[in-house]
């Protein structure tokens, strides 16, 4: 009702907006006798955790910023003839996360779990540090280097090296025959 009163007071410039607003269901607010501005009325309706699950549709940036500070209030706005539902605010995400964790384990059970852990000595001590596991590393960086090309300087020292000629010492046939004879005797 406060929004409709504000639109009436603004005159013919917002007559179309007033007709559109009148087509929707009008919620009673606590400002029946003393109407306040539309944004103040909308903010008062979503107080105390938005019990009626209202959505707020606005183009007013100040109102949008105030709505984002309250958890659990969806925000709609229009961009180029398209209605857009704004992503949940960080406050809303944190509120939902808190509700989910509280629903998983009741508070009295959390306290009993902490007491049991202390009794069994499973609580983390401040001085205790965990060892880090060694993980498999990559290849040796030296093995990944490109092979070096041979230069003229590196070939010269190898040319200076002399080749050894090894001669095989052969035992003469006569010596072998004499050794065999001696073994037979």
TrEMBL record:
Question: What's a GO cellular component annotated to this UniProt protein?
Answer: small-subunit processome
Q: Please state every residue range assigned to the domain named UTP23 sensor motif region.
A: 130-149
Q: Keyword annotations for this protein?
A: Nucleus, Ribosome biogenesis, rRNA processing
| Species of origin | Eudromia elegans
The Swiss-Prot or TrEMBL record describes its family as follows:
Belongs to the UTP23/FCF1 family. UTP23 subfamily.
Main location class:
nucleus
Q: Where in the cell is it found?
A: Nucleus, Nucleolus
Where does the record place the region Disordered?
107-185
State where composition is biased (Basic residues).
160-171
InterPro entries, per this entry?
A: Fcf1/UTP23, PIN-like_dom_sf, UTP23_sensor
Entry function: Involved in rRNA-processing and ribosome biogenesis.
Task: Tell me which domain of life the UniProt entry assigns to the organism this sequence originates from.
Answer: Eukaryota
Keyword Ubl conjugation appears in the UniProt entry: no
What Pfam families does the database record attribute to this sequence? Fcf1, UTP23_sensor
Output the GO biological process annotations, alphabetical, semicolon-separated. rRNA processing
Decide whether keyword Cell cycle is in the record: no
Q: Biased composition, Basic and acidic residues: where in the chain?
A: 116-129
Name the record gives this protein: UTP23 protein
